[in-house]
Structures are given as structure tokens and as C-alpha cells.
Write a structure and sequence with these properties.
By secondary structure, the chain is mostly helical. Helix content is about 75%, strand content about 0%. The protein contains 21 helices and two strands. β1 and β2 form a beta hairpin. The chain starts with a helix and ends with a helix.
Length: about 400
């Protein structure tokens, strides 16, 4: 409309200009071709030329419009398809979120060729296929996604690894993630997924290798990271298969910062005890850990550890009496060490003190054995055997009740 008005104003101005131009001298225009000639006034000639030009331009525009009709129709049709593709993507994602996986897959694949973001269609369709158990179709969609947008290799690979993990294809997932790490070694989510894969595969050395990077970047919750570290370190030690040299080698591969962790130290000592180790290094490790942070399980392990010199071990344990003299576990450990040092009377005193602080099956049993085997006090030994048995039954009942409540 604006163009038409502009043209009308132009024609009007041209006509008025022509009239003003020839007002004093009308002049004339002669057009001759062969035997034909046309003669008219200059004003009329100018007006005729302007009108003819306008008609020619209008005719040309009409013809060009007719010429472009097929292209315009095609463009309009494609526009409708693009719009429909966007609507199908939105509906497919909604279906996927609401659990209508078959319908989601169908909507996501329809008109994907007309989508502005085919990658999203294929990745979502792969998830929908996975949730239906159609794993070949899943892989087909992932391949199509890569063909549609090769530069999105990380996004496609991460999706593939997640789907493989969900389908328990752990080895395949590891291969996918290893490739991704070679491309993007610092990618956060790739590291998270690798940690999960190594944990499931029980590849402890590989897991231990990437844990520092995960900790530095704070990629996992602190509690989850600690659990993962404990499993990795304990798994590495367990793989030593009861060989003392292998155990010590595995322990040396564990970061020094974890060498005072009570859970880990107790586990390491337990494995060492299985091979009847009396290594002074283990004793020093326990002493160092207990000095830094007291732990009842660790002092129990120290009391059961057969040191090469029980008298020196006893001297070390007695240093803790000033700080933990009323700790039943320390007193029990002192009683055990005294028995190995053949100090029967002292052992009895420590064991009775331990029971006085808190009766436990362990201290009752140890005192009963001491009285039966070395002090020749059978009646008292029987008394402590019975007391220890009652405590054991009571603890078992309590543990059973707690487990029952937790299961409910």
C-alpha cells in the first residue's frame, strides 16, 4: 500500500511538473517509425512516457510474482513444516517426561528433517528408545545425531555413555568415556561418569587416579566422595590377596592424606593380621593415627596386634591413659597386651577396669580366658563367660530390632 501511494505521488508530481514546464511553450513531440508518425504536445508526451513506464514496471512486477509463485508456495509449506516440527519436539519432550515413551519416540522422529535442532530430536528419541528396551534403535538415533551435528560429539558421547550405563553396558560405557576424555580431558561430567564406571568395574587404580581431580573441582558431594575413596582404597588393598609385600605396595599407592583415616587403617591392619604380620611399620601407623585422632576400633586393633616387643607396645599404650584412662576399649587393649607380655596380674587389673567402665562381650571373654588359663580361677571364669554371653545375646537382639525397624 505504501509503495502504491508513493508511485501515485510520483506520477502526480511528474504530471504537474510537465504542465508547469510547458506552460509558456507547449512545444511538440514527433515519433516516426517507417510510414507511421505520431505528433503530440510535449506535456502529453511526458505524461504518456511516465504512464507507459509505470505500466511496464507494473507488468514486470506481476510477471515476476507469477514466476515466484511456486517458490513462495514451497517456502510457505516448509515454514509450516518447521513450525510443526517445533511443536512435535515440544510434545515429544513432554511425552518423554510423562512416561509415554513410544508416543514420545514417534513425535520426536516425525519431521525431524525440517527441524532447526535435529540433535535434540535424536538424543531425546534415543532415551525414549532405551526406556522401551529398543537398544538397536537407540544406537541408530545416536548415529543419526552424530551425522546431523558432528561438532556436538561431546554431548552425543555423554548421552551414549549415560544410556549404556543405565543398560549395564559398563565396558561399552568405559570405551565411550575413554574416547571422550581423550578429546576433552577436563570435562567435568565425563570425570563424574568415569568415576562411576571405575567403581562398578572395581578398577581401583584407575579410580584412585582421577579422584584428586574430582575432589579439586568438587564434582561430587563430600559424603559420596569419601565413600568412593574408602571403597577404592579398601579394594586396592583387598586385591593384594593376602600377600604382605603386595599389601605394602598397595598401601604405598594410597595418598598420604588417607593414611590416618581410621576406617582405612583398621581395614589395612585386619588384612595384615590375616598374614600374621608383625611389621613395625604397621604399629607405627596405628600409633600415628591414634595420636592424631582417637578411634575405638583402632585401639581395639592395636590391642590385638602382635607386636615384636609387647613390653614396648604396652609402654606406648600406657601413654594414652592420661587422656583416655576411662575408655573401656583402651583398658581392654592394655589387658590384651599384658597377656602377651605374660603380666597376668596387670592384665587382670586392666580388664576389670575395662568392665568397670562398661561391660562388653569382648572384655568379659578376655577376663574369663585369663582366669581360666592363667590364674586358675575357674568359678570366676565361668561367671564372666556367662556375663559375656548374656551381653552378646542382648546386643544381637538389639541389632535385630534395629534392622527390623529400618526395614519397615
Amino acid at each position: 500500500m505504501l509503495k502504491l501511494l508513493a508511485w501515485l505521488m510520483f506520477l502526480t508530481a511528474a504530471v504537474l511538473g510537465a504542465i508547469l514546464l510547458v506552460q509558456k511553450d507547449p512545444g511538440y513531440v514527433l515519433v516516426k517509425y517507417a510510414d507511421y508518425s505520431i505528433e503530440t504536445s510535449l506535456a502529453f508526451g511526458i505524461i504518456a512516457v511516465v504512464i507507459a513506464t509505470a505500466l511496464i514496471l507494473f507488468t514486470f512486477k506481476v510477471l515476476m510474482g507469477v514466476w515466484h509463485i511456486p517458490r513462495a508456495v514451497k517456502k510457505q509449506s516448509q515454514g509450516r513444516r518447521f513450525e510443526k516440527s517445533r511443536k512435535l519436539l515440544n510434545q515429544g519432550l513432554i511425552d518423554l517426561a510423562e512416561g509415554r515413551f513410544e508416543q514420545a519416540e514417534s513425535n520426536l522422529i516425525k519431521l525431524v528433517a525440517y527441524s532447526e535442532s535435529p540433535l535434540l530430536h535424536y538424543l531425546a528419541a534415543a532415551r525414549a528408545a532405551q526406556l522401551q528396551g529398543r537398544y538397536e534403535e537407540r544406537d541408530s538415533y545416536l548415529k543419526a545425531a552424530h551425522e546431523a551435528k558432528p561438532e556436538a560429539e561431546i554431548a552425543i558421547g555423554v548421552t551414549q555413555a549415560e544410556l549404556q550405563l543405565a543398560h549395564q553396558q559398563t565396558e561399552q560405557s568405559l570405551a565411550t568415556l575413554s574416547h571422550l576424555r581423550s578429546i576433552a580431558p577436563r570435562h567435568d561430567h565425563v570425570l563424574r561418569l568415569l568415576a562411576r564406571v571405575y567403581l562398578e568395574l572395581e578398577d581401583w587404580p584407575a579410580l584412585i587416579e582421577i579422584l584428586p581431580a574430582i575432589q579439586k573441582k568438587k564434582l561430587l558431594k563430600e559424603s559420596l566422595l569419601e565413600t568412593m575413596e574408602t571403597k577404592a582404597y579398601q579394594g586396592l588393598l583387598a586385591d593384594a590377596n593376602g600377600n604382605q609385600q603386595a599389601l605394602e605396595k598397595a598401601w604405598s599407592k594410597i595418598p598420604k592424606t588417607a593414611h590416618t583415616d581410621a576406617d582405612l587403617v583398621v581395614y589395612y591392619i585386619k588384612l595384615c593380621n590375616q598374614v600374621v604380620s608383625t611389621s613395625s611399620n604397621i604399629e607405627q601407623l596405628m600409633v600415628k593415627s591414634l595420636t592424631q585422632k582417637w578411634d575405638n576400633r583402632l585401639i581395639d586393633a592395636y590391642g590385638q596386634f602382635s607386636a615384636s616387643d609387647p613390653n614396648a607396645q604396652l609402654k606406648q599404650a600406657e601413654k594414652w591413659l592420661d587422656d583416655y584412662g576411662q575408655n573401656e576399649h583402651l583398658l581392654l587393649a592394655l589387658g590384651r597386651i599384658c597377656i602377651r607380655a605374660k603380666l597376668w596380674g596387670k592384665a587382670q587389673s586392666y580388664l576389670e577396669a575395662s568392665i568397670g567402665v562398661k561391660p562388653m562381650p569382648a572384655n568379659c571373654l578376655m577376663l574369663a580366658e585369663l582366669m581360666s588359663d592363667h590364674l586358675q580361677q575357674k568359678d570366676k571364669a565361668s561367671e564372666y563367660y556367662q556375663k559375656g554371653l548374656k551381653l552378646s545375646l542382648s546386643e544381637a537382639e538389639q541389632a535385630s530390632s534395629t534392622a527390623l525397624v529400618a526395614s519397615e
